[in-house]
Q: What sequence folds into this?
């Protein structure tokens, strides 16, 4: 294969993202594209956590929103002043990541011998359980109100304010870059190799001395930790833990869509998937709605004509089309592309 | 000295006895073949040796020890620790709301410093109020479930392929099982995995050990690929290799484990005579490196050409064992292959 060296997509994504606020400052006028990008970064982190489980290791997880909820609620409990902990941003974030890691292990241990569909069902159930527990554990989680208000983080003496989005933007981008770096490093090491070998052929992989249980647990722990980091940042961004309904099955499915649409097992693909799916939701649909309203093409009394109400249908359509024409995702990993487009499995002459 | 001693091995799947009371000793440094008609139990024998199937009866000793997870003091400690964690978690979670109220909410005055020194006392008096329901029952349920679950998982994975592989038993598969979407080099590096010392934090942060070990491992992998003459294909995807090359890559991947015993399951299947000749030379070279080879093969020229000894299986039982010359003239072997005259 000719070594044509190009900058991988995940790096160019991060570089372009780092430049956007500067460009906005340079161009006069009121823009807020950068503002809208923040949820994309957080969803991308969620996608990266899921990608470790589903993309690398091949463990289909339908409950990542639960990990995110665990992160958001631990962060909220640790920082909100109605609880005695009242920690700062860094210590709360670090503890939250450790909590996520533990929860990942707790879910991983009993389910470690399940495969494929069975694991998917269990993780689906786990997601529902976490949501219900948060709803009903009134005295700790404040039930359906969620925990608020959370103090804005202050870093190195700088106090974040909700009005200026740039510091938040770079904080989230920094965390995203860190996760991209760590995931890329893991992917290209013995850990990533072992994960992929388990996805491809668990038996052969264990015959080569890989302990599949250990590697799957590691994937669970690291994936959950990253998802809970996304949750913690989400809570700090909202200034609230959000209500339990914010972390329902739809969020898990959207995270899965991001991974699938972007390209499973590929870090750049997950970033692109987050950009396309979350961006479609929070940028394209919003702008379209505002535009249509401003020109009085639609009015708010007719729910049928609001583009926002069509989004799940459009997601569904996009997924169907993706699976038909480009099953490997927009930006596939080379490996998976080969898998899905090989005309037939390599034939083995029978002996 | 025998590197592998199989004594009275029986493997049963429900009512089917795939291997029945087979005993076989493999001396260190020899090439031993197992032959027999289809369905004779050869691959099941291999699966038992590599820990895929647990023996129903009998023993397999590799290098003087059984290839299963040993039951050590640390095993007991780990199981006890898991049980304890499960027990305490259930105590904590079972009735968390009143506990939280008793320990945190009642002691916290809004925005005042929290009296942390009061919390252990508050927790103790909370549990002391109703020790049976609040502590003992969840502790016992959690502890027993955790311990039993951990023990069940441990017991069911006692015979595991990775245990055998790490002890030094490597194998190839009858129907090639490469990691098709990984490169040739990565396949070999994966085989080397059990010999690597980097942990995930080395890899995640790319600490110096990662770089050093990566360089060394890639060098060794290329050496192994050169040994099976695949170094030109190092960066291709495994599935793009030709059939003969895939067979050789499987051997390379197995050699990367640095095994003392290599099990080859029909390596010459589907090969033409020239390729089979080449394979025989390769197996010889592997033996020269000090690796004992156990071989399943239908290709008689290969079997007769390189084996020091041959064992013949039929219907799960060993019907003959000896040098190639002895086996060739054994009447039971001829009957098994050709039927009674």
A:
């Amino acid at each position: 294969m000719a070594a044509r060296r190009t900058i991988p997509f995940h790096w160019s994504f991060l570089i372009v993202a780092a430049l956007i606020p500067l460009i906005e400052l340079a161009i006069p006028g009121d823009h807020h594209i950068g503002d809208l990008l923040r949820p994309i970064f957080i969803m991308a982190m969620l996608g990266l956590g899921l990608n470790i489980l589903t993309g690398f290791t091949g463990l289909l997880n339908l409950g990542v929103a639960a990990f995110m909820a665990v992160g958001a609620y631990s962060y909220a409990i640790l920082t909100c002043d109605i609880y005695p902990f009242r920690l700062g941003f860094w210590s709360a974030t670090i503890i939250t990541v450790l909590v996520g890691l533990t929860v990942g292990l707790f879910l991983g241990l009993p389910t470690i011998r399940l495969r494929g569909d069975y694991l998917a069902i269990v993780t689906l159930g786990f997601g529902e359980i976490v949501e219900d527990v948060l709803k009903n554990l009134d005295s700790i989680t404040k039930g359906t109100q969620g925990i608020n208000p959370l103090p804005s983080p202050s870093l190195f003496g700088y106090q974040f304010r909700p009005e200026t989005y740039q510091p938040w933007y770079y904080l989230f981008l920094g965390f995203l870059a860190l996760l991209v770096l760590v995931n890329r490093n893991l992917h290209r090491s013995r850990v990533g190799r072992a994960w992929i070998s388990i996805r491809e052929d668990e038996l052969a992989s264990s015959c080569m001395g890989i302990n599949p249980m250990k590697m799957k647990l590691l994937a669970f722990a690291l994936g959950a930790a990253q998802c809970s980091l996304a949750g913690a940042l989400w809570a700090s961004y909202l200034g609230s833990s959000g209500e339990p309904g914010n972390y329902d099955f739809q969020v898990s499915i959207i995270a899965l869509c991001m991974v699938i649409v972007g390209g499973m097992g590929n870090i750049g693909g997950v970033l692109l998937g987050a950009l396309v799916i979350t961006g479609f939701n929070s940028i394209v649909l919003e702008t379209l709605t505002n535009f249509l309203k401003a020109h009085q093409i639609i009015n708010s009394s007719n729910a049928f004509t609001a583009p926002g109400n069509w989004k799940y249908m459009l997601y569904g359509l996009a997924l169907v089309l993706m699976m038909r024409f480009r099953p490997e995702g927009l930006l596939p990993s080379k490996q998976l592309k080969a898998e899905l487009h090989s005309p037939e499995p390599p034939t083995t002459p029978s002996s | 000295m025998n590197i592998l001693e199989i004594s009275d091995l029986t493997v049963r799947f429900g009512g089917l006895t795939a291997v029945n009371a087979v005993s076989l000793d493999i001396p260190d440094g020899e090439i031993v073949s197992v032959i027999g008609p289809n369905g004779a139990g050869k691959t099941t024998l291999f699966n038992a040796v590599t820990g895929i199937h647990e023996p129903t009866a009998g023993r397999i000793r590799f290098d003087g020890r059984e290839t299963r997870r040993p039951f050590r003091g640390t095993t007991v400690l780990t199981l006890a620790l898991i049980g304890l964690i499960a027990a305490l978690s259930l105590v904590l979670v079972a009735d968390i709301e009143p506990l939280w109220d008793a320990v945190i909410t009642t002691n916290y005055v809004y925005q005042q410093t929290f009296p942390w020194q009061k919390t252990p006392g508050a927790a103790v008096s909370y549990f002391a109020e109703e020790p049976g329901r609040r502590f003992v029952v969840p502790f016992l349920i959690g502890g027993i479930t955790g311990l039993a679950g951990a023990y069940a998982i441990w017991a069911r994975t006692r015979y595991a392929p990775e245990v055998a592989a790490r002890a030094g038993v490597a194998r190839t598969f009858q129907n090639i099982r490469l990691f098709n979407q990984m490169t040739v080099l990565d396949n070999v590096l994966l085989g080397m995995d059990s010999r690597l010392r980097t942990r995930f934090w080395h890899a995640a942060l790319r600490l110096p050990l990662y770089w050093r070990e990566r360089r060394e491992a890639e060098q060794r992998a290329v050496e192994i690929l050169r040994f099976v003459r695949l170094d030109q294909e190092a960066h291709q995807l495994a599935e793009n290799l030709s059939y003969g090359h895939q067979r050789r890559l499987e051997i390379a991947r197995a050699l990367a484990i640095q095994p003392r015993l290599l099990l080859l399951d029909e390596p010459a299947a589907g090969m033409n005579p020239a390729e089979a000749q080449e394979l025989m030379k390769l197996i010889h070279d592997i033996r020269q490196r000090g690796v004992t080879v156990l071989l399943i093969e239908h290709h008689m020229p290969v079997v007769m050409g390189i084996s020091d000894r041959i064992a013949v299986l039929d219907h799960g039982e060993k019907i003959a064992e000896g040098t190639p010359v002895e086996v060739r003239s054994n009447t039971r072997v001829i009957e098994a292959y050709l039927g009674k005259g």
Remarks:
- Chain B has 14 helices and ten strands.
- Chain B touches chain A through 66 residues (CB under 8 Å).
- Residues 16 and 257 of chain B are 33 Å apart (CA to CA).
